[in-house]
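Minutes, project check-in
Item: structure for the 343-residue chain
Input as provided by the requester:
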Amino acid sequence: MNRKPGLILDRRYFDHTIEQHSLENPDRIRNLYLSLDSPAYNGRFKRYAGREATTNEISAVHSKFYMEQMREYAVHCDPYAYDRDTYLMAATPYTARLAAGGCLTLADRILNEEVDAGFALIRPPGHHAEPGRGMGFCVLNNAAITAAYLERAYGLSRILICDFDVHHGNGTQEIFYDSNRVLVISLHQNDVFPFSGKAYELGRDQGVGYNINVPVYPQFGDPEYTYLLGQMVGAVVEQFLPQIIIVSAGYDGHADDPISKTLLSTRWFGRATHMFKQFARDVCDNRLLFILEGGYNPVALEAGVLATLDSLLDPKMHRIGIVAAERAQRILIDHPAHSFWSW
C-alpha cells in the first residue's frame, strides 16, 4: 500500500443525538476526532467529508415504507416511539444519509485508486438495520448500501463483507441472504442481541454457502479471534477472491466494553488490520474499506480505532502468525459452512 489511506471525518455525524442517556451518542467518537486532528495524524490521511446518499442508493437496500416510517418517527414527540433502542430525532434522517454517503465517497476513492484503503468514521452505525426497519442503534445499513452501490456502479460481482462486531449483523445477513455476489462473514458473541447469526444460517437459494456465521463463546479473546481470521476468513478469501473487502468494524468486543463478554485487547484490532491488509493485497489490489459499527466505551473505542488506523498507516506488511487455539478449532471442525469452503 503506497498511497495514503482515506478517512471519512465529518462533525455533522455528531448531530444525531438525544438528551436522554444512550450508549450510542456523539461522545463515542468526539475524542477520537480530536486525536485525529493532532500533529501525530495530521496530513497522514486523505480526508473526506460525508455526502448525502441518494434515495436511489438507499432504496437498493431499504424499502420505501421504512424510509417513510423513519421520516415520520423522526419528528415524533417520543424519540423511542419507533424502537426501544434506536432513537430517531429531527436530525437523524439527514445524519444517517451522510453516514451512508460517506461510505460511498470512500468506496469511490478506493475504486478510482485515489487511496488503497480507508476508514469511514461515521455514525449512526448500520449493521442491524434490515430492509424494512432500523434497530439496535442502527438506522441505515451503511455496509450493505456500500456493497449494493459497488455492484451497480462498478459492476463488482464478488464483494466480501466481514463483520467482527460483537453483535451479529442481522441486517446485512438479511439483505444479502440470497446473493452469491456478496459473501457475508460474521464473527460475533453467541446468544446476545439480536439473538440471530447461528452457524446453520448459510443463505438461501443461490446464496446458500455465501453467509457464514461464527458465533463465539464469552471469554474468547485475541488467540481465538486471530485463529478464526487466519484459518477461516483467510481460506475463504483465497477461494472467493473478492474484488473488495468491506469490514464492519465493531469495537465492542474489547475487554473493557460494557455490553460484551469477549476479551479482545486493543492490540488485537491492529493485528487484525494487518491481516486484512494482507488479504486485500493478495487478492484485490489492496481494496479495503473499514466502516465503524459498535463500541460503547469511548476510551476503548478510541484506542481500538487508533490501533486500526496505525496499522493502515504502517507501510510495512506484517504477516501475523496463526497459533492453534483449541476452542476456536472446535468451532471450525464442525461448522456447516465447511462443506462449501475448505479451511
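Outcome recorded: The beta strands are 6-8, 46-48, 117-120, 159-163, 182-189, 211-216, 244-249, 288-292.
No further action items on this chain.
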